Each structure stands twice: as C-alpha cells, then as structure tokens.
C-alpha cells in the first residue's frame, strides 16, 4: 500500500523554510525599487458611489472609511501634477463574463452607464484626471486602454488604491506586474468587505507582486523623488 504523504510534511520538518516564507508574506521586499515621482501614476480603483454610499446594496463599509485617506493621496499626486486614473466599473446588460451571476445588484444594472451608483465618489476631485470607464471585469487592464495610457505617459510604477482589495485591486496589481510595471499597493487605502480577505490578499501581493505600503509612506517616498512638471497631455 502506498503511503500518502501530506504536502506540508516536508515544510514542517524545515522550520527555517517556514520562517522565511512567513517573513516574505509579512515583510515583503521593501527595497525592491524606489517610487520615482516622474514615472509613477496613481490608479484609484472603483471608488464609485455604489461601493462607498451606505445606502447601496454594493456598499463596502471600509471603502467609506478609507475615502478621505485616498483623497489625500489624490491631492498629493495632483500637487505634483502626476497622472491620476479613476477606474469606473461599468457593467452593461450583456457582460463579457459571469460577473452578474455572482453579484445580483450588478445584474440589476446598478453599475450600468447612467445609474447614480456608477458615478465616481463625488468627494474626489475628478476634473483634470482620467476616468477609465471601459472597465468590465475585476482587472482594470482587461479589454481597456489602461496599458496604452500608462505607456504613452512614460509610466513605470503604478500605485493602486481603492476597492475591493482581493478582487479589483489585486486583479489589477497582478496584471500590472505581468505587464512589467513596478507595483505599489496601499495597505490602508485599499478596502474589502472582510478584513481576513483584505489581509490575505496583501500577504500574497507583498510576497511576490508589489511593495505594500501605507499611504503616508507612499507620500514620503514620492516626495523624496519629486520633480515638479507641467500636467501630462494624457490627463484630461
């Protein structure tokens, strides 16, 4: 009879291996790259009325809580005249995927063009920034102009904030990594509906996809490599 060996048994016999894995999940690679202001853009993921307004069936309470902090990050990028992109998840009646099957409010059209919940959260200053309304899936790069927009602006690093951490933020971060961008994920400016899901997503991203930093740390590093310039022509 064949002996069934647990796939974790080898790791259990190698505590140093487990300890190093835990270090990477919890600490990541803080010196992987620097945030160069001149080649960095901010992507604010799906901070729309439907996710931020407590009256919505789509409400993510943590998204409401982090909105002011995201606003500070937007203001910092705007002050340095850097590219800010708001993704606007817009879901038509005929979707290219099964998302309506997993989210009844979306099936009901609550994020369709023209619905009040589809709008970017009004507390943010959107004018002068780019609104990416072609997003039809969790990943903001899938089927959109996002990659072209970033490359045309000479962007090498993307900072990701918004909601939800373990869906659209993580999906966008993974694609950015796969496309060759440096990726920064804001630990306190991303939100999910369960703290455990938020933390699990950050642990995975931290270990192999992104630098995971607080908004305050992002601002400090951005300013340490800042060089003021005129607004980019892609910002409109």
Describe the structure.
- The chain is of the alpha/beta class and 236 residues long.
- It has a single domain, classed as Isochorismatase-like (Rossmann fold).
- 39% of the residues lie in helices and 14% in strands.
- The protein has a 6-stranded parallel beta sheet with strand order 3-2-1-4-5-6.
- β5, α9 and β6 form a beta-alpha-beta unit.
- α2 crosses α9 and α8 packs parallel to α9.
Number of helices: 10
Distance between the termini: 68 Å
Radius of gyration (CA) equals: 19 Å
Which word captures the global form? globular
Per DSSP, what share of the residues sits in E-state strands of 2 or more residues? 5-15%
The CATH class, by name, is Alpha Beta
CATH architecture: 3-Layer(aba) Sandwich
Helix-strand category: alpha/beta
CATH homology group:
Isochorismatase-like
Low-confidence stretches: 228-236
Provide the CATH topology: Rossmann fold
Helix content: 25-40%
What's the β-strand tally? 6
Could you report the average pLDDT, rounded to the nearest whole number? 92
Sequence of secondary-structure elements: HHEHHEHHEHEHEHEH
* Number of domains as seen in the coordinates: 1
Order of strands in the sheet with most strands: 3-2-1-4-5-6
């Amino acid at each position: 009879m064949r002996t069934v060996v647990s796939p974790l048994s080898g790791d259990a016999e190698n505590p140093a291996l487990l300890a190093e894995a835990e270090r990477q999940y919890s600490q990541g690679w803080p010196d992987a790259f620097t945030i160069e202001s001149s080649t960095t853009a901010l992507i604010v993921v799906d901070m729309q009325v439907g996710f931020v307004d407590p009256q919505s069936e789509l409400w993510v309470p943590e998204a409401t809580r982090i909105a002011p902090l995201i606003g500070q990050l937007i203001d910092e990028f705007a002050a340095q005249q850097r590219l800010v992109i708001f993704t606007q998840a817009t879901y038509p009646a005929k979707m290219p995927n099964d998302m309506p099957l997993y989210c009844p409010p979306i099936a009901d059209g609550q994020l369709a063009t023209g619905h009040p919940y589809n709008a970017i959260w009004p507390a943010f200053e959107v004018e002068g920034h780019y609104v990416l309304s072609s997003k039809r899936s969790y990943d903001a790069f899938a089927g959109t102009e996002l990659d072209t927009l970033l490359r045309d602006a000479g962007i090498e690093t993307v900072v990701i904030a918004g909601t939800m951490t373990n869906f659209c933020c993580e999906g966008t971060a993974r694609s950015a990594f796969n496309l060759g961008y440096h990726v920064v994920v804001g630990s306190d400016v991303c939100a999910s509906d369960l703290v455990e899901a938020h933390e699990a997503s950050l642990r995975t991203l931290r270990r192999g996809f992104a630098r995971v930093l607080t908004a305050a740390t992002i601002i400090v590093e951005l300013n340490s490599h800042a060089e003021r310039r005129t607004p980019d022509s892609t910002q409109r």
